[in-house]
Amino acid sequence: MRSAFAYIPRRGPLQQARPGAAVAYLGSLVVVAFLYSSPLVLVAAGLAACVAGRLAGARSAVRAALRMGLGLALLIVVVNALVVDRGETVLARLGHWPLLGQVDVTLEAIVAGVSIGLRAAVTMVAFAVYSACVDPDRVLRALRPLAARSALTASLVSRLVPVAAADAGRLRDAALLRGPGAAPVGRGPLARRLLAGSLDRAVDVAATLELRGYSLGGPRGARRREPSRHDARFYAVALAVLAAAIVGKAVGADDFHAYPRIHIGTGASTLAVCAVVLASGLAPWRRRRRGHRV
Amino acid sequence: MSELAIRRGAAPALAVEGLTYTYPRAAAPALLDVSLEVAPGEFVLLAGRSASGKSTLLRAACGLVPHFHGGEVGGRVEVAGMDAIAAGPGELAATVGYLAQDPETQVVSTTVAAEIELPLEMRGDGPGDRARAVEEVALALAIPHLLGRAVDTLSGGELQRVALAAALVTRPRLVLLDEPTSQLDPVSGDELIWLLRRLNEEWGVAVVLAEHRLERCLAAADRVVAVAGGRIGFDGPPREFLAWTREADPTLTTPAARLFSLAGIEPLPVGVRDARRLLGERGAWPGEASVTPVPHPGEGRGGKTLPTDRPLRFAALRKRREDAALAAANLWVELDDGEGARDVLRGIDLTVAPGERVALMGRNGAGKSTLLRAAAGLIDPAAGRVAAERMALLTQNPSDYLVRERVGDELPGAAGLAALRAVGMEHAIDADPRDLSGGERQRLALAIALAGRLDGDGVPGLVALDEPTRGMDRGRKDDLVALVDRLAERGAAVLIATHDVEFAAEFAQRVVLLGDGVVIADGPSAEILSGGWYFATEVARVLDVPGVVSPEHGASLIAGGAA
Question: A165, B54, B89, B524: which could form a disulfide with A210 (CB 3.0–4.6 Å)?
Fold first, then answer.
């Protein structure tokens, strides 16, 4: 069975755009997530990534990434609440814990955890949309002029996620099929094996790329460039998002702090950045034209 | 070797001199003082047991050793006059085509067409040249129907053909192939060998082919190089190689040569055609080929007599679904192959009784693996039902079972050690699974699947193995046959999906042949494996006597005919 993150060729604008344009567009949302701490902006970036994924036909990838991303966010919230004792609004005093000492759960620590968790979730959703919508073959070819002497870099960038996604299903099956006398495989060893195996496989793929002549000095323009009429749209949206994010940051749109008391700004600049980021999620929208009658 | 093909005066396609190589962290060298020369247009077969150094020699010839594997290397390797140790695989790509043992590790693109086109694109060929080359290599390997498919939807055999197409599409001067037929059905395997021979004769391509199933390719080879313990043990013509195996390593001989040895006929034949000619010249035919089935001798391994009413027993067993280890009734399975959903299994009716040893055969993509996975509950049927009693399944890719960094950690305790002993891997208990050879990894994965299931109540109702002989030499296959016997004696039904006809003849009582998702033949192995052109053993193809598949049976008939 195919992984939710596997690339599936479709006729959507995001799939037809050049890898550079798609990466610029989705990357701009990730930049926003790392630039801002305001939960409002982060939620807007997350919604934009989800909408983009849905419009691009990557619903299952978005769903899977949301499951994983929100799970990770929840974990971050819990850990942050337990290890950070800053904040004035104490919700619970959990007494003295080994290693952690006195544990006081504060509302501020929870909200700060939410902010960090949202950042991780936005990144995961954007990456899932990239993985499901951007053709790894085109990424590989696009990387050749940039990393002609490093097949390993190229294979890590273009193939790590598809290979890991394909391996994950098979590894899960094999774990179920182990005999009762074999050491059981929990999630930890499976995840470690998946990561190590994916890196091993990336090295194998790099070796194969070398054997196929990746580093040969063949003319790079041999393959017809495949421009897309959607490239300009994605570059423009990425530019608009980045410009709004940078200008907004400079004028104080990231108006949020968790400690000592929570403050989430809802000023005009914050709302403007939210609006731009949220609207950017519509970039993969495809206008359906009526057929022309003869 | 074709005189036309050999360009006299040209640099050797491959020249190896005093090559010694040790993998990182390895205690002993994998290759020791190896010297070898392959002329342009020569077809060389590399023979040897598992982990003898064949794959390492091929990796050295294409520059992966030491460039990707690291380790210590000494000596000289030259490919078409280029220093392979200094140059590395990237520089050699224009000259060398290489196919590794695991095709899964050799796929870099998402679609088949893109995968085959990639080397041409890297070389800078124009769109027209690329399209023509892709079309031609796809036709030659019978894969034009796969061109639009996504690579992650291909079966193991299909993937192997695609990887091979990518290795051949640039028409390299030297082709290095590491067990290219290990996952191919007999039809594709035979056709591949003759395609290589054609490339070799018509284009002067030098071929170095490492194989365990020598009966498939010995007749096509100009020369055989046997590797043993990292050294060259033999280097000479195929017929002399067969004579050498009698004294040096009988596990490397072919079934036809064994037939002749047992019947006392000289010289040993290098293929089916040669064997038939020699038998005719010596008047040693066991009799006219008969269309009447010859009764099976009724002897199992170890002289154990099998019931003589086998056909009746099969019919009776099929009716007793409630006692079956595996029962499939009108089983339909639908899978998405990237071009939409497709019925991979179409109304399969199959019953396997406890203690029965069954070979599941059929061409690549026929549905063998899908049937096993559906029986194990990994895939839901679209219609019908399938039930297997306490099933143990070993899937096609052994690396999926290897999770930890030490063999002993995969298989702890007495049950783990017993499983390691059962597959002959107890010596490797402290090894890192990733450092094992392909055949060793296969056996370790088998031990993991069977750990705790070898004795007592733990013995599964059904043991299913998917292509378990990949990378195994004949000695290891014999060990696997013994293990299968042991499990069957303890009441487990054993169902093995395999393309290895000789192995099927060794272990199976019954053969089920799948074709395009339906059962097209089901019967005693001697009957099925002697009744066709492709799904037949080498002895069956030599003698063409229904029911005769093994060298021992054939030799007894020849002796009887001669008397």
Answer: B89
CB pairs under 8 A between A and B: 168
ipTM above 0.85, yes or no: no
Q: Which residues of A touch B378 (CB under 8 A)?
A: 173, 176
Joined tokens for residue B369 = 């693996």
Residues in chain B within 8 Å Cβ distance of A208:
100, 105-108
Burial of B145 (0-12, 13-18, 19+ CB in 10 A): exposed
State pLDDT tens for residues A235-259: 999 999 999 999 999 999 999 999 9
Can you list the alpha helix ranges (DSSP code H) found in B249-288?
255-263, 272-281
Rg (CA), chain A: 22
Res A203: pLDDT: 80
Contact B218/B240 with Cβ under 8 angstroms? no
Q: Compute the average pLDDT of residues B492-513.
A: 95
B282 in a domain, yes or no? Answer: no
Q: What's the pLDDT tens digit per position in B172-193?
A: 999 999 988 888 888 888 888 8
Q: How far is residue B207's CA from residue B47's CA, in Å, rounded to a whole number?
A: 14
CA-closest candidate to residue B178, choices B61, B79, B71: B61
Q: In this complex, do B395 and A140 lie within 8 Å of one another by their Cβ atoms?
A: no
Task: Give me the residue spans of the domains in chain A.
Answer: 22-140+229-280
Q: Which residues on chain A are in Cβ contact (under 8 Å) with B452?
A: 179-182
Q: Does B308 map to a domain? A: no
Can you tell me which residue has the tokens 């004035």? A88
> Is-contact B43 B222, C-beta < 8 A?
yes
Q: What is the pLDDT of residue B6?
A: 47
Last residue of a domain, one of B227, B253, B279: B253
**Closest Cα of chain A to B89: distance in Å?**
5
